Amino acid sequence: MWSGRFSENPDALFESFSESLSFDRRLAPFDVQVNRAYAKALHRIGIFSDAEITLVLKHLDHIAIELEAGTFPFNRGDEDIHMALERRLTELAGAVGARIHTGRSRNDQVVTDMHLYLKTVNQEAQKALRALSETLIEKAEHHLTTVLPGYTHLQQAQPILLSHYLLAFFWAIQRFRQRLEENFVRLDVLPLGSGALAGSAFPIDRAFLASELGFTRVSPNSLDAVSFRDTFTEFSGVLTQISVLLSRLSEDWILWSSQEFGFLTLPDAFSTGSSMMPQKKNPDSLELIRGKAASNAGHLQALLTLEKGLPLSYNRDLQEDKLHIFSVIDNVLPALKIVRKIVATSTFHPEQMKEAVHLFTLATDAADYLVEKGLPFREAHVVVGQAVQKCVREKQNLTELTLEEWKTFSPLFEEDIFGWLTLAHSLERRNLPGGTGPKSVQTQLEQAKEQLRK
Ligand code: ARG
Fold first, then answer.
1. Which DSSP string corresponds to 263-313?
2. Among protein residues, the one whose CA lies closest to atom 5 of ligand 1
3. Does the N terminus or the C terminus of the chain have fewer Cβ atoms within 10 A?
4. Is the Cβ atom of 107 under 6 angstroms away from ligand 1?
5. What single-letter DSSP state applies at residue 429?
6. Could you report the per-residue pLDDT of 264-283, keeping only the tens digit for each?
7. Known active-site residue 153
C-alpha cells in the first residue's frame, strides 16, 4: 500500500510479527458495513460517479458473500482486515476501488469497526444478563423458604434463605446491566471522518455516515476519536467484573457440590469424570469459569497498561487492544450462558442445607433477646459468648441448655428464650427491607420481577 515511499520489501519476520488479520478478521462484517457507508458518502461529494458507486456497492456485496461463505481469498501480505478488504475491492473493481480510502485512515476505520462490533456484543451481553436474571428469579421463587447457613469467612454466621442468596446475584447483575447500558451510550458515537488524526480534508457528511451506520452522534474531536480506548476498556472492565461475579458463584457452588457440603447436585452435562477414578464427578465447568476470570483480570490489566504512556494520537501499540478485548469477550459470554444453564438445572438439597445449619448461628439472636430485656448489646454479646464457650466445651448446642443453665449466665433469661432459638424465629426477625426474613424476600422477589418488567 505504501510502496511509493519505500525501496525495500518488508522483512518477512517483521511482516508476520505486525499482522493483525489473524484476530481482527472478526471485524470483517463491520468493515464491510463501514466501507459501504463510506463509499456512499464519497459518492455524495463526487469521488464516485453514479455508475461507480453502483459498481463499488455490488463488489462490496460480493465480498460480504465471500466472507460469509469462507471463500474470501486472504493474501499473505494482508496486514489487517481493512487492507485485505481494500485489496480485494481493488482486485474486483479496478481503479474504482483504489478511491475508497480517500480522506480516510485505518485509524478512524478501525475504531469505527470496533464501535459497531462492541455495540453488538454489548447488546448480546445485556441479553445474557437478562436471561440469567430471569433464571435466578425462577430458582429463588422455587426455593423461597429453603434455609441454609450463611457464611462470613467461610464460617457459619447466621441462617439465611436460599432465595435471598440467589437474589443477591440478581441485584449485582442489575448493576452490570445498567453499566452496560451506560457504556452503550458512549459506544454509540461515530469516529469515521476523523481521518488519521486531524479530521478528513474532504467534506464528508458525517451525519449521513452516522445515520447509515446507526450511530446517534458523531465524535466531536478527531484526536479524541482515534487516540483513546477508554470506552473499550470500560466495556472490558464491566465484562471482567462480570467474570469475577460468576467466579464467586462458581466457588460457592463448587464447595456446595462437594461431599462435605452436599447442598446441591450439578447437572451431568456440565460435569466431567476422571480418567482414573470411576466414582468422580468434577465441577470443571465452574472451575474453568473461575479460571477464565483470572485471564480476564490479566487482559484488563494489559489494556490499561497498553494505553498509559502513549503520546497522542494513534500509535501502533493500540492494535494490541483487540487481542485483549476479544479474549475478555470470549471468556465471559459463554460463561454467562453456561452459568444460566447450571443455575436452571442444578438440584438443591434443602434437607441437607437445613441440617448443615449449626445452631450456634442463633447466638446473635440470643444476644438480641437480652437486648430486648434491657441489657446493652455489648454486655449481651459477652454473656452469650460465655454460653457458647460452655457449649463448645461440653459438646452441646445452645438449644440444649436448660433455663437454669441460661440463668447462670444472666438472670434476664426466661422461659421465652426457647422460642427465640429456632431458625424460623431467627429469619422472622429479619423482615426489614433488604433482610433475609421470608416476608422481606417475598417483597424483594416482587421488586426483582418489577425490575425486569421495566
Ligand atoms: N490494524 C491496525 C490497528 O488495529 C489498524 C490501524 C493501523 N494504523 C496505522 N497507522 N498503522 O490498530
1. -EE--GGG-B--SS-TT--B-HHHHHHHHHHHHHHHHHHHHHHHHTTPPSS
2. 106
3. C
4. yes
5. T
6. 999 999 999 999 999 999 99
7. yes
CB 80 near ligand 1, within 6 Å: yes
Instruction: State the amino acid at position 84 in one-letter form.
Output: A
Label residue 99 by pLDDT band (50, 70, 90): very high
Sign for the CA dihedral angle at 113, 117, 120, 126 comes to: negative
Ligand 1 and 319: CB distance under 6 A? yes
158, 144, 157: which is closest to 440 by C-alpha? 144
Q: Is the CB of 106 under 6 A from ligand 1?
A: yes
Is 274 in the active site? yes
Nearest residue (by CA) to ligand 1, atom 10, is 107
How many whole angstroms from 102 Cα to the centroid of ligand 1? 16
231 Cα to the center of ligand 1, angstroms: 18
Looking at residues 191-205, what average pLDDT do you find? Answer: 98
Distances (CA, A) of 390 to 363, 365, 381, 406, 450: 13, 17, 14, 11, 48
**Catalytic site residue from 274, 295, 324, 358:** 274
Per-residue model confidence as pLDDT tens digits over 390-423? 999 999 999 999 999 999 999 999 999 999 999 9
Cα separation, 442 vs 167, in Å, equals 11
Please give the share of the chain, as a percent, with pLDDT higher than 70. Answer: 100
CA dihedral 346, 352, 354, 356 (to 10 degrees): -120
450463611: which residue's cell?
A: 150
For residue 148, give the amino acid letter.
L
- Going along the chain from its start, the domains and CATH numbers come out as 12-102 (1.10.275.10), 107-355 (1.20.200.10), 358-447 (1.10.40.30)
pLDDT digits (tens, 9 = 90+) for 163-177: 999 999 999 999 999
**The predicted structure's pLDDT at residue 3:** 80
Report which ligand 1 atom has the smallest distance to the Cα of 196. Answer: 10
Q: What average pLDDT does the segment 100-106 reach?
A: 97
* Ligand 1 within 6 A of CB of 314: yes
Question: Cell numbers 497498553 label which residue?
Answer: 306
Tell me how far apart the alpha carbons of residues 183 and 117 are, in angstroms, rounded to a whole number: 13
